[in-house]
Amino acid sequence: QVTSNQGASQCKEKLVVLLSPVGKLEISGCETGLHEIKLPKMSVLPSGMEFPTTCELSEAWEELPEPLKQCTAWLHTYFCEPARTASLPVPPFHHPLLRQDSFTGQVLWTLLSDVKIGEVVSYKRLAELAGNGRAARAVGGAMRSNPIPIIIPCHRVIRSSGQSGNYGGGNLMKEWLLAHEKLRREK
Question: Which domains does the chain have, with CATH numbers?
Answer without folding.
Answer: 14-87 (3.30.160.70), 96-181 (1.10.10.10)
